DNA sequence: GTCTATACAACGATAGAC
DNA sequence: GTCTATCGTTGTATAGAC
């Protein structure tokens, strides 16, 4: 799928000046200013993704619950994945665009690119968003399922492009390293890692990630 | 809380009493049934650890808040670290005993022992305890500080025994791998890793942890 | 009477003030 | 360097539950 990332990233703009979000009557044409379709979609998406996982959740179901047309998903978030990123994971980047960028370059340096990009993006977004992500995962029972689907899609696409065996396990192992990195740097804030230079961490962690991607894992 | 009679017994057997209810002196000997010193210590420890971190919290301060003697910490929990494990981290094992066990064996197999023990212990405890641990870290602001102190003490003791440089960073890197492993196996429950055989994971992960412990990290 | 939870004193280690 | 305060821990006598 070719995805153009339209949705805003991270910040909550001054969009929501809604006075009554519980209106059930639907009109055709452009709705009055201040009716925050985008927020309604995010809330509906949180519920539907949590209930059914990524693959099980349909754009139509989300739009119906939000009380808007399904086309609004593409208008506000570019794609189903863009909505997913904004609503559930609150990622500070677009997964597809990132995956595409990571594929550019030699396969034996993929781990390096992943670690560098991961730290750079989350750093610039501020650690608070990662904390919110983890909290949503530990809080809701189904949120782990959502993250699992996402990781599977994201990492398995990367790994398959360099042709390793035991893709599912390798994807899981990569997840342990990257999630743990986020936990230590942004949630628990261990020193010196939390304030360490990016390239130092890349040199330290990338070889381990690369082993999970293409190395011998027993 | 549990002081209804305030008195002090001198060496000569004379009993001097006071009617001041705020006197800190307490009777010796076994207290009336139903006065749960152990629970009082855990509750006090939660508060003091959360306020001051591991090193900042003193056994005496905890005992004072619980209204008992500091020696009760050793009597009921073996040590300050045992109390910490029970009260804040709710670990399914005793950190000191575990650290001692991990030191037995060749240094180049330390990573293997850590991974195997980590998975075995948490598996037998059920993943729910790990979820609770993570939730307490993400929830309370100070809990990350507590975990940080604990990890530092636990891992730095292990690493220093095998003599590597850059101990603090290596400890942090080990934390990324182990915390991430716990997140993926017990919280997010990625498959196949969540139900994978222990020894398969040991072969996959131990070399990476060993590199953080004694290898070249850039 | 027996057992044990308890308080108190004291020890070695350690960190900071002077 | 010396002194002091405080830390975690240990030993021990004992009060009170059983």
Write down the CATH class of the largest domain in chain A: Mainly Alpha
Q: Could you give the count of β-strands of chain A?
A: 0
The assembly state of the depicted protein chains is homodimer
Q: Indicate the CATH architecture of the largest domain in chain A.
A: Orthogonal Bundle
Report the helical percentage of chain A: 55-70%
Number of domains of chain A: 2
The largest inter-chain interface, given as chain pair and residues per side, is:
A-B, 44 and 45 residues
Radius of gyration of chain A: 19 Å
Give the mean pLDDT of chain A: 80
CATH fold-level label of the largest domain in chain A: Tetracycline Repressor, domain 2
Supply the number of helical segments of chain A: 10
- The amount of beta strand of chain A, in percent, is under 5%
For the biggest sheet of chain A, the summary is:
none
**End-to-end span of chain A in angstroms?**
35 Å
Class by alpha and beta content of chain A: mainly alpha
What would the principal axes of the Cα set say about the shape of chain A?
globular
Secondary-structure element order of chain A, as H and E? HHHHHHHHHH
Low-confidence stretches of chain A: 1-27
- CATH homologous superfamily of the largest domain in chain A? Tetracycline Repressor, domain 2
Keywords (chains A, B): DNA-binding
GO molecular function (chains A, B): DNA-binding transcription factor activity; transcription cis-regulatory region binding
DNA-binding region (chains A, B): 58-77
Domain HTH tetR-type (chains A, B): 35-95
